[in-house]
Amino acid sequence: MHEVSISHAIADVVLKESQKQEAQKVLLVDIEIGELSLLNPEQVEFWVKLALDKTIAGEAEIKIEVVKPEVLCTACGYEGMLETKDDPLYHFVLPVFKCPQCGSGEITVKRGKECKIKRIEVLT
Q1: CATH code of residue 7
Q2: Tens digit of pLDDT for each residue in 26-50?
C-alpha cells in the first residue's frame, strides 16, 4: 500500500511550500498520477486529505488528474497512447507492455509513470 507513503510525501511538500509562501490557507492541491504508477487515485486523495486534516490545508480541494500512458517505439517509430487494462494483478506483478502498432517490446514510456504536484493554490 504505497499510496500511504506517497500521500504523506505529497502532504509534506504542500505544507512546506505553503509555509515558504507564508500562506494563511491552502485552497487547492492539483496532482497528476500516471496510470503506470500503479497508484490508486481515490486512495491517494483519501490519504492526502487525512494527512492534511487539522492544518492550513485541511479544507483544500484535492484535484487529481489521471495521465494516460504515452510511448515511443524504437522499432517502428510509433508515438502515442498505450492501452492498459484495469487489472488488480498489476499491483503484484510487473506487466510487460508492447507497441500497439508492431508488437515490439522496444518501447520507451514518455508519460504515464509520474506522480507529481502540478499546482498548489494558496491564500496569502
Answers
A1: 3.30.2320.80
A2: 999 999 999 888 899 999 999 999 9
Is the confidence at residue 91, as pLDDT, over 60?
A: no
**Distances, alpha carbon 46 to alpha carbons 2, 64, 72, 113, in Å:** 13, 11, 33, 20
Q: pTM of the full predicted structure?
A: 0.80
What stretches of 38-80 show up as alpha helix (H) in DSSP? 41-52
pLDDT tier, 123 (very low <50, low <70, confident <90, very high otherwise): very high
C-alpha cell of residue 39: 497508484
The boundaries of the domain holding residue 19 are 2-123
Strands 79-81 and 107-111: unpaired
Q: How many domains does the chain have?
A: 1
